[in-house]
Amino acid sequence: MKERVIKGNACLREGADWLCAAEPRFDKAMQVLPPLPLRLKPEGFAELLSAIVSQQVSVASANAIWGKLQSAGMISAQAVSGVDEAALRDLGLSRQKARYAHALASADIDYDALRQMAATAVIKTLTAVPGIGAWTAEIYAMFSLGRADVFAPGDLALQEAARVIFDLPERPKEKDLRVMSEQWMPWRSVAARIMWAYYKHHKQREGIR
């Protein structure tokens, strides 16, 4: 059976309604939240390269480096393959990230074919590329491909949201949250959106003194 793809806000509402009916604590969380953001992103090489650029640096630094890459026309596989690592480092990439950029460019990923693959196959394909971990692959499947039933249990914000929403004694570890998320199939991507939104709400509330 072909996996469900989130294409608009109606899909989000359908998923949220299902989750709220299945899990009262999601319903309680949704009562204090604004409409969930769609958060769909572009597909392709540039989106994954941007994710590599953003690893372990501030948003401001990532934006600055990405701006240099864009200005230099270094956001396609063909362009990146055509220069050496030194040229990429001159644009702000670390030595390691320059290697990752070349690895992504030479991986020859068929981005159109990813749309037809099961999410597990998408994640396996992407994580085979150096520099792309499970979190990046899951986020790509969730937001660039719009898959409705993908989760990112290694995400610290999701772990903290789970602790708060479900009144847990501590943040669940990645493997525990992955098991926990199976209760939210086939709408795990919508569950993640609820949890990210609730995490933001909770942090803002904590900031009020």
Structural class, judged by helices and strands? mainly alpha
Largest sheet: none
Low-confidence spans: none
Number of domains: 2
What is the rounded distance between the termini? 51 Å
CATH topology tier name of the largest domain:
Endonuclease III, domain 1
Element string (H = helix, E = strand)? HHHHHHHHHHHHH
- The total count of helices amounts to 13
In percent, how much strand structure appears in the residues? under 5%
Rg, rounded, reads 18 Å
Strand runs, count: 0
- Supply the CATH class of the largest domain: Mainly Alpha
CATH architecture of the largest domain: Orthogonal Bundle
How would you summarize what this structure contains?
The chain has 13 helices and no strands. The chain has helices at residues 9-22, 24-30, 45-54, 59-71, 77-81, 85-90, 95-106, 111-114, 119-127, 134-144, 156-165, 174-181, 188-206.
